[in-house]
Design a protein that fits this description.
The protein is of the alpha/beta class. The protein has three domains: 6-49, 434 Repressor (Amino-terminal Domain), CATH 1.10.260; 63-160 and 297-323, Rossmann fold; 162-295, Rossmann fold, CATH 3.40.50.2300. The protein has helices at residues 6-13, 17-25, 32-45, 51-56, 74-89, 103-116, 131-138, 162-175, 191-206, 211-214, 226-238, 251-263, 297-309, and strands spanning 63-68, 93-98, 121-123, 143-146, 156-160, 181-186, 215-220, 245-247, 273-278, 291-294, 320-323, 326-328. β8 (245-247), α12 (251-263) and β9 (273-278) form a beta-alpha-beta unit. The termini are far apart.
Length: 337
């Protein structure tokens, strides 16, 4: 079967081909009754708009690439939903890709999306090197950075003040009496994680503590998921003197830490406090409920999509939108033993 044409739609609706074109591209200039008649005719003959031909005539694509570190991670899943909701309002559709924090996967995703002629790319970069994103934008495909600062590039960006998030974590635990805190960190060169560690150091220093002694860094190997975080608990418990609290780089890592502590017979928070980061949907349902640093995930994604949609508007200027995280206190943190 061949794709139905505009001519067939016009004949079925009893209007001119230019009227059908207006319904497709400038519906506001067509009366409601005529528009409804044309839309009914499209359904009758099975007309489907040819997106490739539309782009050849200079119309913007209705697809947008969303390149995220891991779409299975609930933080990025919620960010992606915010993107999709805003794009859907504009009649666009998201193509979501995961890089697994691997440069080669990011490079391939950007290449394929450019070949597809997407309207733009919402990118959560795998590192602080942004050459590929800058070059892509320079060739005419707009790029908006997600959870990553613009870092002096001519790119729009949406970020969270992660330094403040780290400070909030430190302030909360110090106020409860903790003086030696483990921080689960990954090997990824991500500004968001670097910012959280810096915030922790600042918060401990502001409390008058000796930071090199008070903050115990515990690396979590790739892929830095629940299993790897659970295995890292042994290093936390073996540190001398033993830390009385653990700050995790995200809530998924906090789940792993809680599992490891339960397996080791360590009470939470009586024997060890645990603090996460993100406030994903299940954080309040854990046992005990997880104290965490909340990020505005849906708003983050929606704001990124809004910046991308604005790229084609007259007078658009690149800018960076920064959100502020907040501390959510639940029952996984308490005074040290």
């Amino acid at each position: 079967m061949r794709r139905a044409s505009i001519r067939q739609v016009a004949e079925a609706a009893g209007v001119s081909m230019s009227t059908v074109s207006n319904v497709l591209n400038n519906p506001d200039v067509v009366t409601v009754d005529t528009r409804r008649r044309v839309e009914d005719a499209m359904a009758t003959v099975g007309y489907v708009r040819n997106g490739a031909a539309r782009q050849l005539r200079g119309a913007p694509s209705v697809t947008v690439g969303c390149v995220l570190l891991d779409s299975a991670n609930l933080f990025y899943a919620q960010v992606a939903r915010g993107m999709e909701d805003r794009l859907a309002d504009a009649g666009c559709m998201a193509i979501v890709c995961s890089t697994d924090v691997r440069v080669e996967r990011e490079t391939r995703a950007l290449q394929m999306l450019e070949e597809l002629g997407v309207r733009g790319v919402l990118l959560s970069p795998v590192s602080s090197r942004l050459d590929a994103a800058v070059e892509l934008a320079g060739r005419g495909t707009p790029v908006v950075l997600v959870d990553h600062p613009g870092a002096g590039t001519r790119l729009c960006a949406v970020t969270v003040d992660d330094v403040r998030g780290g400070e909030l974590a430190a302030e909360h635990l110090v106020a409860q009496g903790h003086r030696r805190i483990a921080y689960l960190r990954t090997e990824a060169d991500l500004p968001s994680l670097v910012g959280r560690a810096e915030g922790l150091r600042r918060g401990l220093a502001a409390a008058g503590l000796d930071v090199p002694w008070a903050l115990v860094g515990v690396p979590v190997p790739p892929p830095a998921g629940v299993v790897e975080a659970e295995a890292a608990v042994a290093r936390v418990l073996a540190a001398e003197p033993r830390p009385t609290a653990v700050v995790c780089f995200n809530d998924m890592a906090a789940v792993g830490v809680m599992r490891g502590l339960h397996a080791a017979g360590v009470d939470i928070p009586g024997g060890m406090s645990v603090l996460g980061y993100d406030d994903v949907v299940f954080a309040s349902e854990l046992a005990p409920a997880l104290t965490t640093i909340r990020q505005p995930t849906h708003e983050l994604g929606r704001a990124a999509a809004e910046l991308l949609l604005a790229e084609g508007r007259p007078g658009h200027r690149h800018k960076e939108v920064r959100f502020t995280p907040e501390l959510v206190v639940r029952s996984s943190t308490g005074p040290p033993p």
